[in-house]
Design goal:
Blueprint: H1 3-18, H2 23-26, H3 32-37, H4 40-45, H5 68-76, H6 84-91, H7 99-105, H8 129-140, H9 145-151, H10 156-162, E1 164-165, E2 170-171, H11 174-182, H12 189-196, H13 209-215, H14 225-240, H15 244-247, H16 250-259, H17 265-274, H18 281-290, H19 296-307, E3 310-315, E4 318-323, H20 327-338, H21 342-351, E5 354-355, E6 360-361, H22 364-373, H23 382-398, H24 405-420, H25 426-434, H26 438-450, H27 474-487, H28 494-514
Antiparallel strand pairs: 1-2, 3-4, 5-6
Length: 515
């Protein structure tokens, strides 16, 4: 191919990823136009008339010019969770008039429905038709939403063609996973697990975000032993893989098998090994603490984290022991505390210490570090840790008018308590959501669920609230959602709205999972 022709081909490839082209250009396949002309779904929404010789250009395969559906694609792009139409539906009552469009947006051809051509979206000219419908599903709850979304990934070929754009190397595989999580569609867990086994053709450009979404949330579904065995097989391969598809799943795998308190010997071996090495050693330590793994090597690892951050000084004849503050010592202390080790409780007592004479936290930075790791304490010691935090929190709150830093210390404690499932965190969290400090609201929603899919050092503690038995009740958790919805009436920061909306949808998903 000569240089000029190569440049033309390259230009066409670039333009095809920038604009929504007519149906015949979106998918490489034989007779696609003729196929769509005969299809009832395409007939309902698309312009299917072709220009004849001498006629003005007709945008074949596009939405009717000036229709509300065409306007929606411009306003909301790929997600209704980033635009006014979506905000209005979330904060108020979703317009049921959109339901037919959302249902048809997920309509697609089957693997062998039209010869050797791959599956396509029937509204094929809309680049983001499936993605947008998936983001709309948990807000509109349109009829059969979960089943329709699950159907789009019920074969490997659908997963690879409907949710992955080869031309631009863009993967949208996380969107059906996130939608099904938010819809509470535990009944479709098998197909979600099965599709996690697929690897992208171009592994370097595919981080496996669908795996991350599933592993960071599905522990709340309390899946069966058979399902957990299938997940363990996937994670065992990820733990030893070196492609992005595998390495990005390591932290989420550790989180999943930690939160499910695994007894799988292979998973336990990986957790113990990864505590001491790699980018996910914090997540491995969290898993070991929560399960807990009461073995000498694990206890020694936690002790090492504490001892390396231990400081001793002498004042007169009295020896004073204090501790540096960081997340390494915090998870070490949490791990030891949950196993009944005194060295862990000493650190925790230092980090929650209150100086009555000075009316201040004795180690405010230690307090912050501890709150991030508190949700990973073993169940046997959860109530005891909650009581230690609750004992000091009223003093912290009273200090806010005199020292604004104590607003932050209150917020992180509220986050920890809500992630531990205690309603004592509810009132300070609601005060922030109903207040006028946008920065505090932004920080708060990151721990309520906006970053529920983040692992390792990027996570904000557990990243989500705990709902269900011996935790927040549905009524209590819904107060957070209602406060977020109420905020949309006055909040002006678009980024804050998006973050809060995502947090609310995660809380709603956990309510559904708890039933």
């Amino acid at each position: 191919m000569n240089t000029f022709r190569m440049r033309i081909v390259f230009l066409i490839l670039i333009l095809s990823t920038m604009f929504a082209l007519p149906a015949s250009s979106m998918t490489a396949g034989k007779d696609i136009d003729e196929f769509l002309i005969k299809d009832p779904v395409a007939q309902k929404w698309l312009i299917l008339k072709k220009a004849k010789a001498g006629e003005t250009y007709i945008p074949f395969g596009m939405y009717t010019t000036g229709s509300k559906h065409e306007a929606l694609t411009k306003e909301c792009d790929w997600s209704v969770l980033t635009c006014k139409t979506g905000y209005k539906a979330f904060a108020g009552t979703p317009d049921a008039a959109w339901n037919d469009f959302w249902v048809d947006s997920l309509s697609h051809t089957e693997d062998k429905e039209w010869g050797t051509n791959p599956p396509i979206w029937k509204l094929n000219s809309d680049s983001y038709v499936g993605v947008r419908a998936a983001t709309a599903a948990p807000v509109w709850n349109f009829p059969n939403a979960a089943a329709l979304i699950a159907k789009t990934i019920n074969t490997p070929q659908k997963m690879e063609t409907l949710w992955y754009f080869r031309a631009s190397r863009e993967s949208y595989k996380q969107h059906p996973y996130r939608a099904l999580w938010r819809l509470g569609a535990k009944e479709h867990a098998d197909v979600l697990i099965a599709r996690m086994e697929l690897k992208c053709e171009d592994n370097r450009h595919c981080a496996g975000d669908n795996r991350i979404v599933f592993l960071m949330t599905a522990d709340a579904w309390k899946l069966s032993a058979t399902q957990n065995a299938a997940i363990a097989k996937i994670c065992a391969e990820a733990f030893v893989g070196d492609e992005a598809w595998d390495t990005h799943a390591v932290g989420p795998c550790l989180r999943y098998f930690g939160r499910t308190k695994t007894a799988d010997t292979t998973m336990l071996t990986f957790i113990k090994r990864l505590m001491g090495t790699g980018d996910s050693k914090l997540e491995a330590a969290r898993a070991a603490a929560y399960i807990p793994i009461k073995e000498k090597a694990v206890i020694n690892d936690f002790l090492k984290r504490v001892e390396q951050n231990k400081q001793e000084r002498t004042e007169g004849r009295k020896k004073i022991i204090s501790y540096n503050n960081n997340y390494d010592i915090a998870i070490g202390a949490i791990g030891l505390f949950g196993m009944g080790e005194a060295d862990g409780e000493k650190v925790i007592d230092d980090f929650v210490g209150w100086d009555k004479a000075k009316s201040e936290l004795t180690n405010p930075n230690g307090w912050v570090s501890l709150m991030a790791e508190a949700p990973f304490v073993a169940e046997t010691h959860r109530k005891k840790l909650i009581d230690k935090i609750k004992k000091v929190l009223p003093n912290v709150e009273k200090k806010i008018p005199k020292d604004s830093q104590y607003q932050r210390y209150t917020r992180v404690a509220a986050c920890a308590l809500l992630q531990l499932g205690d309603k004592a965190g509810l009132e300070p969290a609601l005060d922030i959501l109903k207040g006028n400090d946008d920065n505090e609201v932004k920080e708060l929603v990151t721990c309520l669920g906006e970053k529920a899919e983040e692992a390792n050092g990027n996570s904000v503690g557990l990243g989500s609230v705990r709902v269900g038995k011996d935790a927040l009740t549905e009524k209590e958790a819904r107060q957070l959602i209602d406060a977020i919805k109420a905020g949309f009436a006055t909040w002006q920061d678009e980024g804050m709205k998006r973050s809060a909306l995502n947090a609310a949808l995660d809380i709603e998903a956990r309510i559904k999972a708890s039933r």
